[in-house]
Amino acid sequence: MVISMNLIDRNSMAGAFEQPGPSVMKPHEAASLMHHVPKVELHVHLEGATDAETVWVMAQRNGVTLSASSLEEWKDQYQFRDFEHFIEIYGLATSVMRRPEDWSFMVERFLSGQAQQNIVYTEAFLSASYQVSNLPADEWIDAIAEGAAIGERQHGAKVRFIPDISRHLPDTQEAVLQHAIEACKREHFIGLGLGGIEAGFPADLFIETFREAKRRGLRIVAHAGETTGAQTIRDAVHKLGAERIGHGIRCLTDADLVNELREKRIPMEVCPTSNYCLGVVERGQPHPLRRMVDAGLYCTVNSDDPPMFSTTLNDEYSLLAIQGFSIDELQQLNLNAVDASFLPDDEKLVMRSKIEAAYSQ
């Protein structure tokens, strides 16, 4: 089965999920509100946020052969059969990013797009496992920091980066750790992440690496419970010291884990459209975020790899409104992202005040 990048037809889903009541907004009202309210996003991949045309241009410029003979054919590759196919295409996309100027350009354009959505602060992943052999660490870090500084100055949106180890490339973990340690000496970098294919690559493979990262003062996040079961989430928390969980929707299969996540207030970075497009959640069904929120879990909403899934953060909020989330619930999800971020407490207070003021207006 081919899963179309245009899978989520938000208007056609409205009748299935929208509930009556004054607190439920219509999809266009949700889009308008969330466009104007300042937002925070915690789970988005820089490489996955780079559109297909930009990837194609970089491939031509850097002499990298993609699995397509034209731009249109390359765009067609963004129709994912399953999670493994997505990882394959994602890996190809990241392979074209070979020069420092590629990274500076990507970061600046990323911040332009975030600013257009009124996303004022982002914590974004860097798929470092794919990059450690392409550029020396200092050139890669300098280029990203330069793009961030330019983008923040020109667009007013702020970003902090989390280099990410891909589970299915465990041999890269030491190099990624060293890149992350060096990067986190700079203001635009904050931690170490774990992503990639969950099945077959357990947390045990990465325990020493994340222990050293924590000893060095890096913040720790991990994708878990996206395509495998609740134990993957438990291992990320217990064995790796994850402070936030990417996706985490499979926690609902384990009541004890749900209780633990709720009691410890471990933030969950939920990405609805991504889950639909990769077949993690069956299309036409309500997203598990509804049950996660109802269970008292500490959830945020995010776009993951937006152009790959034909979405934006604004679209994610609109989708949730269609599925019956109230205005107040959407606002709380946004405020959760502020509180779950790795910003200093004083900056969180300022940001919360700005968001609440905009919301009240």
Q: List low-confidence stretches.
A: 1-8, 10-23
Please, how many helices?
Answer: 16
- The rough form would be described as globular
Give the class from helix and strand content and strand pairing.
alpha/beta
* Tally of strands: 8
Largest sheet: 8 strands, parallel
CATH architecture: Alpha-Beta Barrel
Task: Going across the biggest sheet, name each strand in turn.
Answer: 1-2-3-4-5-6-7-8
Mean pLDDT over the full residue set? 91
What radius of gyration results from the CA coordinates?
19 Å
What is the share of helical residues?
40-55%
| Total tally of structural domains | 1
Q: What is the CATH class?
A: Alpha Beta
**Series of secondary-structure elements, N-terminal to C-terminal:** HHEHHHHEHEHEHEHEHEHHEHHH
CATH superfamily: Metal-dependent hydrolases
Key terms for this structure?
361 residues, alpha/beta, TIM Barrel, eight-stranded parallel beta sheet, 16 helices, disordered N terminus
Question: Can you offer a commentary on this structure?
Answer:
- With 361 residues, the protein is of the alpha/beta class.
- The chain has one domain: TIM Barrel (Alpha-Beta Barrel).
- It is built from 16 helices and eight strands.
- The protein has helices spanning 10-17, 27-36, 52-62, 71-76, 83-94, 100-116, 137-155, 173-183, 207-215, 230-238, 255-264, 272-277, 289-294, 313-322, 327-340, 345-360; strands spanning 39-45, 119-126, 158-166, 191-195, 219-224, 244-247, 268-270, 299-301.
- Strands 1-2-3-4-5-6-7-8 form an eight-stranded parallel beta sheet.
- Strand 5, helix 10 (230-238) and strand 6 (244-247) form a beta-alpha-beta unit.
- The protein is globular.
- The termini are far apart.
- The model is unreliable at 1-8 and 10-23 (pLDDT under 50).
